[in-house]
Design a protein that fits this description.
alpha+beta; 3-stranded antiparallel beta sheet; 1 helix
């Protein structure tokens, strides 16, 4: 009777012992297969975003700038040019008919530092970072 109770307890506790086992038992060295290494994850190439149809192409003639800023833009009609400070506030604003003619703005009175040139023509926009000396 005692052996029957021991067998019953062993059968009831055996599944619990299997659940508690978190790593498989190690095989002896003679029969162990060579360790397999997991392949390193592949680095995915960055996805190039589609070009924005409302983006303007802006060209700055020289950067850093000392006294005058010459901006070229591919907008065919009236375009608003802004020079914004680091907080995004417009410091100098000019509206011009662009086409192929460059727009010149005097920036000699501005303190040295980074500025953002923003061009807006209708729904199209473009920005460029410039450094004023």
């Amino acid at each position: 009777m005692k052996s029957l109770a021991t067998l019953a307890v062993a059968l009831l506790l055996a599944p619990l012992g299997l659940l508690a086992q978190t790593t498989p038992a190690a095989k002896p060295a003679a029969t162990a297969a060579p360790a397999q290494t997991t392949p390193a994850p592949l680095a995915l190439a960055p996805v190039t975003p589609a070009p924005d149809p409302n983006a303007l192409k802006i060209k700055i003639d020289q950067n850093p700038i000392a006294h005058t800023l010459t901006v070229r833009c591919d907008a065919p009609g009236p375009t608003r040019f802004e020079i914004n400070d680091q907080e995004g506030r417009p410091i100098i604003t000019k509206t011009a008919m662009v086409g192929t003619t460059p727009t010149v703005m005097k920036v000699g009175t501005l303190p040295a530092g980074p500025y953002v040139v923003r061009c807006t023509a209708g729904e199209k926009r473009g920005t460029k970072l410039v450094q004023i000396q």
